[in-house]
Design brief:
Length: 558
């Protein structure tokens, strides 16, 4: 089992303890252990074999025994006992945005609500608002969130779908009858959420591959040249078949949107059979369009005009901004995070722990801010001579308060090298309220980057509505960069607004928002969706060299 899978069962155990009104300290212990495993770089099975799992923060001998049972048997006695004590549908209710364990337990105990269907029925019958502390607005929000959750259930986040599809592709490529097996469709175009993984298989003998799929997929089916089913992880998959001689044309046709394919066939004749995808574009007199751009948004005409952009790559990034440490809610120390950034080839690193108002994330008091600044100065002296030197910039992720002001007094804010302004609370806003809140923060001079501008969590929470045009205009006027938060749960700014921002002269900052060393690698997802917005290196803040970034901090020039 993967570390994430084990962590998920530990967190589920914590939720079950809360749902059964168990010891809250015990529940927090399981949650803490779950977070530690998510941040653990080595496989948990290796730690078990080496008897070093107890060296991990938050994991004692008893917890290690539970984890050992999970790794070897898929569960453990306490979890099984707790599961049997609650209706199975209760865990589904827990996924509804805004319903934590306490509210879910009250709905169960006081209204006998034990499934999503019963929850929706109770809301429609106005029974939820009869509970103390719920009310009509809460009931309506629950009803809307249940319906939203049902829509989410049919989709997968890009990173999750990519991980599941990767192992499936590896298995396909190992088959003797398979010449090539590649991702295609929305997955290849790097759409932030997908309903299925599309895969293209090149083979001269599809029968043995189809036989293999019948044993590998759940609910296998076949229609024409497409086999469908579900992977073990539950991800729907569609396997498209083609011959080697037609592979290039099939890959082009299954990758692009209908609008993209129509634009190409309008520009030239319908493509003939080609073994190589690049030949499809060459035959039409065009340069190849990168898969990320094949959305039917002018990319074919740009290819005809020789105006396709040189898109950003992860190798273009020279800095890694907006990261967290153990000073707030991170899992690794400031030094560990900075060294890891240097080891990944970054020349500069921004630490942006949470500000004091976000108590749930252990936001820094002014005293802690000053202590962190002293450590930054010490580490910069030390790491200048490191094997992979990296310069640390002392930033803060300052909460944007309800009135649009920033956390801390101005003199403390001015002492930071840069400020990322973000909203973390008070999401129930109209578009005008949210926009005014963001615009006021952008106009406040210490703000240099606007963090995750809509606050969305993909397949979990819709972002608050904003007037993107006004926010972009404010960022352009005040030389504030817009964050494209690369956490695969966020990917916010939405890629559909990237071109509008860069056309206005606004820089995009691809930030991992890393809370652990491993999360520094989230930038690949930010780059992937940034490319969909035609993002180039010169339009990306942290693709600047160290010296250019310093100049930007000083006076806004590169």
């Amino acid at each position: 089992m993967s570390n994430d899978e084990v962590a998920q069962l530990l967190q589920e155990t914590a939720d079950l303890i809360d749902l059964t009104d168990g010891n809250p300290h015990r529940a927090r212990a399981f949650s803490r252990a779950a977070r530690s495993l998510q941040d653990l770089e080595e496989p948990v099975a290796d730690r078990l074999r080496q008897n070093t799992l107890v060296d991990v923060s938050g994991i004692g001998e008893g917890m290690a025994d539970h984890i050992g049972d999970i790794v070897h048997g898929g569960s453990f006695a306490l979890r099984d006992e707790l599961q049997s004590a609650v209706p199975p549908g209760l865990m589904d209710i827990l996924q509804v945005n805004g319903l934590g364990t306490k509210r879910t337990r009250r709905l169960w105990v006081e209204l006998d609500v034990t499934s999503l269907d019963e929850l929706e029925r109770a809301a429609n019958e106005d029974r939820i608002m009869s509970l103390d502390g719920f009310g009509a607005k809460t009931q309506q929000n629950i009803l809307e969130n249940v319906r939203q959750l049902r829509r989410y259930e049919a989709k997968w986040r890009l990173a999750d779908a990519w991980t599941a599809a990767h192992s499936f592709l590896q298995a396909l490529r190992a088959l003797d009858a398979v010449e090539r097996a590649v991702p295609t469709g929305p997955l290849r175009r790097r759409i932030e959420t997908v309903e299925q993984a599309d895969v293209l298989v090149s083979t001269a003998a599809p029968e043995p591959v189809l036989d293999w799929l019948d044993t590998r997929l759940d609910d296998p089916a076949q229609e024409d040249a497409v086999a469908t089913g579900r992977l073990d992880e539950g991800l729907p998959v569609a396997v498209h078949f083609t011959s080697p001689a037609r592979f290039g044309t099939a890959w082009w046709r299954t990758t692009g949107t209908p609008d993209h394919c129509a634009a190409l066939t309008k520009h030239a004749s319908s493509p003939a059979d080609h073994a190589d995808e690049a030949a499809v574009y060459q035959a039409a007199g065009l340069s190849s369009v990168p898969p990320a751009l094949r959305e039917g948004q002018g990319e074919v005409q740009a290819a005809a005009d020789g105006a396709l952009p040189e898109l950003l790559t992860t190798e273009d990034l020279d800095g890694c901004l907006h990261n967290h440490s153990t000073y707030s809610d991170g899992s690794h120390t400031l030094r560990e995070m900075a060294v890891a950034a240097g080891d990944r080839g970054y020349s500069y690193f921004g630490i942006c722990d949470h500000s004091q108002s976000l108590r749930i994330a252990d936001g820094l008091s002014p005293e802690e801010v000053r202590a962190q600044r002293e450590e930054v100065d010490r580490l910069n002296e030390e790491l200048a001579g490191h094997e992979t030197p990296v310069r640390i910039f002392h930033g803060i992720e300052s909460d944007i308060l309800r009135d649009g002001s920033l956390d801390y007094e101005k003199d403390l804010l001015d002492a930071f090298d840069f400020v990322v302004g973000s909203i973390h609370t008070g999401f129930s806003m109209t578009e005008d309220e949210a926009t005014e809140r963001l615009v006021r923060a952008v106009k406040t001079p210490p703000t240099r980057i606007l963090g995750h501008p809509t606050g969305r969590l993909l397949l979990r929470r819709e972002g608050y509505p904003i007037d993107h045009e006004r926010v972009i205009e404010a960022c352009a006027e005040h030389n504030v960069a817009l964050e494209l938060n690369a956490n695969p749960y966020r990917l916010d700014l939405d890629w559909r607004w990237v071109r509008r921002a860069t056309d206005a002269g606004v820089l995009l900052s691809i930030n991992p928002d890393a809370h652990a060393v491993s999360e520094l690698d989230y930038v690949k997802w930010g780059v992937a969706v940034g490319r969909k917005g035609w993002l180039t290196p010169d339009q990306c803040l942290n693709a600047k060299s160290l010296s250019a970034f310093v100049r930007w901090l000083d006076d806004g020039t590169s």
